[in-house]
Design brief:
Radius of gyration of chain B: 24 Å
Largest interface: A-B, 51 and 70 residues
Strand order of the largest sheet of chain B: 1-2
Strand content of chain B: under 5%
Strand content of chain A: under 5%
Helix content of chain B: over 70%
Largest sheet of chain B: 2 strands, antiparallel
Shape of chain A: elongated
Number of strands of chain A: 0
Distance between the termini of chain A: 27 Å
Helix content of chain A: over 70%
Largest sheet of chain A: none
Number of strands of chain B: 2
Distance between the termini of chain B: 10 Å
Number of helices of chain A: 13
Number of domains of chain B: 2
Oligomer: heterodimer
Shape of chain B: globular
Order of helices and strands of chain B: HHHEEHHHHHHHHHH
CATH topology of the largest domain in chain B: MetI-like fold
CATH class of the largest domain in chain B: Mainly Alpha
CATH superfamily of the largest domain in chain B: MetI-like
Chain lengths: ~300, ~325
């Protein structure tokens, strides 16, 4: 079963158009560069090259992204920062996906009163503005270690996933093979994990991919106001913390981390869009009944 | 319809109650309280007396019951930071945030829907495809970074607009009414632009998707078969149905906008709720922090409630159910 959906995913990737393939390649390169940061970065993240002579240097051959006002090499900081940003976002989204899937599956499998209560509770959590809540918790608990940041981002991000999982699971629940399993005497837990779970994984993967981009932005925003990742484990967002006045003369210190972040998020969004389009069965149907007046390769 | 409103209203109250509870406990489990941050020279017994005066020494459940009771009667507590009741503090800063968000919401919807329609109508032309690419690009921009770049560009390198605040701190008092109004508008332009760009991109993307969803419908085929102009098929038949999801989106865009407003306020030092929240956190002003989260949630709940009711008004199928 696992192999089956992996094959489905591969088929989905093969159906991607050239833009999304490019996004995939760029993303792969970014991930590789970020993970290899300790190997390929010319300096360490917080190394101050020459506190007097080397601060605020414009980009040059020796320092392609310039140096910041503490005479640190911006390229190295971007590489290390991307490493932290990507790791935090990916792990956080993984946490969200796990919690959301279990919650949604539980609601759908048990049904009845449990479902109603769980969904009402979900409504309540959905209406808490995520940013406000995160700012409040992070600031009051500060300084939080990175794993805590991952956990908090994950715990506040699963609501959408669980809605989706529940909706998918509710429709799968009525299919013949599940009815057959139930009449053979399979318990709720077995039905949930062996029959429903594999069939809801695809939408989970797609929303998860889309979510990574959002979480990178969110984490960067929190780090920007000084309560997310902090020195020495600076993320891309932390690099903006200096304030605008500091960037007025040294545009490179604000531009390059931003460009890397925007590229990453853009690639994730392009890829998420394309994955959703190519994995959505309704979309295939739409392609067949196509009207010829609208681009068919894009769907929300 | 009345029944629908009643049910939704009841849901909203339940959700608000849960939100307040969650926010209260989450924040009270955090280490420290408002008095662990004040001047370190204050001796321990004075600190304890201050805690007792504000009720921070009581059992958590008692604090919770008291807090819920006072919230229900409209009293959100006393802000230690600003030394005024929280309702009064929020009363001053909330309208400023609402001004920013409200304007951004209205402008973004007007622009975003048009853009979505344009992209679908002219999907074959290069310009429409470029527009689709650009909206995906803007949608991917972190709000604070966009704000930072706008600020750098239009306030430092090309100093044509003020870099922060709501009015000119020194000169505003001495301006005539016309000049003062222009001063306010000038300060509004950059933060508003940052929010509008991002929300417009979001709405355009959803509007485009909603239109594409509707286009394969039977009634569109019928319209096309009877020879309706392609312009009118999208502009009248399809758009009317594709606008329904936009109503829901208006409710959903609210929390996103509120979050974005916090960062944008921070970058442009716009003295609204976001900036107040950030400074309240620095000094552990619990009542103000909890109230900000609760008021933010209330805004979201009210936004969703209004969206639900609007949906009921716009779509007769919902009313029957």
């Amino acid at each position: 079963m696992f192999v089956e959906w992996l094959r489905g995913l591969a088929a989905g990737v093969r159906r991607l158009d050239s833009v999304s393939r490019a996004a995939l390649v760029i993303l792969g390169a970014l991930f590789l560069a970020a993970m290899l940061a300790p190997v390929i970065a010319p300096y360490s993240q917080s190394h101050q090259i020459d506190i007097v002579g080397m601060k605020n240097h414009a980009p040059s051959l020796a320092h392609p992204f310039g140096t910041d006002r503490f005479s640190r090499d911006v390229l190295s900081r971007v590489l290390y920062g991307a490493r932290i940003s990507l790791t935090v976002a990916t792990l956080a989204v993984l946490v969200s996906a796990i919690i959301g899937t279990l919650y949604g599956l539980t609601a759908a499998t048990l049904g009845g009163v449990v479902d109603t209560v769980l969904m009402r509770l979900l409504d309540a959590m959905l209406s808490i503005p995520r940013v406000l809540l995160l700012i409040a918790i992070l600031a009051l608990w500060s300084p939080v270690p990175l794993w805590m940041l991952v956990l908090l981002l994950g715990i506040t991000g699963w609501f959408g996933v669980s809605r989706l999982v529940r909706a998918e699971a509710l429709s799968v629940r009525e299919r013949e093979f599940v009815v057959a399993a139930r009449s053979l005497g399979a318990g709720a837990g077995r039905i949930m994990l062996r029959h429903l779970l594999p069939n809801v994984l695809v939408p989970v993967i797609v929303t998860t991919t889309l979510g990574i981009g959002n979480v990178i932005v969110l984490e960067a925003g929190l780090s920007f106001i000084g309560i997310g990742a902090r020195e020495p484990a600076a993320s891309l967002g932390t690099m903006f913390q200096d304030g605008t006045e500091a960037f007025a003369g040294t545009w490179w210190a604000a531009l390059f981390p931003g460009v890397v972040m925007v590229t990453t998020v853009l690639c994730f969004n392009i890829l998420g869009d394309a994955l959703r389009a190519s994995l959505d069965p309704r979309h295939l149907h739409r392609a067949r009944v196509g009207t010829g007046t609208a681009p068919l390769h894009t769907a929300e | 319809m009345r029944r629908l409103v009643a049910v939704r209203l009841f849901h909203a109250v339940v959700v608000l109650f849960l939100v307040t509870t969650i926010a209260f406990f989450l924040l009270h489990f955090a280490p420290g309280d408002p008095f662990s941050f004040e001047n370190p020279n204050i001796p321990g017994d004075v600190r304890d007396r201050m805690r007792a005066e504000f009720g921070y020494d009581r059992p958590l459940m008692e604090q919770y019951v008291r807090y819920m009771g006072s919230v229900a009667s409209g009293n959100l507590g006393f802000s230690h930071l600003l030394r005024v009741p929280v309702t009064q503090a929020l009363g001053t800063v909330l309208p400023r945030t609402l001004l920013l968000m409200g304007l951004a919401l209205v402008i973004s919807f007007a622009l975003g829907i048009r853009l979505g329609v344009y992209e679908v109508r002219h999907w074959q032309k290069r310009r429409a495809r470029a527009s689709n690419g650009i909206s995906l690009f803007i949608y991917s921009l972190p709000d604070f970074w966009l704000a930072l770049m706008l600020l750098l560009t239009f306030a430092y390198w090309l100093p044509i607009l003020p870099g922060g605040g709501m009015v000119d701190v020194v000169m505003h008092e001495y301006m005539g009414p016309g000049q003062a109004a222009w001063d306010r508008i000038k300060h509004l332009i950059l933060p508003l632009t940052a929010l509008v760009l991002i929300v417009t991109a979001l709405i355009a993307r959803y509007q485009r998707a909603a239109l594409l969803e509707v286009l394969p419908s039977d009634f569109v085929r019928t319209a096309r078969a009877k020879g309706v102009d392609e312009r009118d098929i999208i502009g009248r038949h399809a758009l009317r149905n594709a606008l329904l999801p936009m109503i829901t989106l208006a409710g959903l865009a609210f929390p996103a906008l509120l979050g974005g407003a916090v960062f944008v306020e921070k970058v442009f030092s716009w003295p609204g709720m976001g900036l107040t929240l950030i400074s309240a956190i620095g000094v552990r002003d619990y009542p103000l922090v909890v109230a900000s989260v609760v008021v933010g949630a209330a805004m979201v709940v009210i936004g969703n409630l209004l969206a639900d009711i609007a949906y009921g008004l716009a779509d007769p199928r919902v009313r029957v159910r």
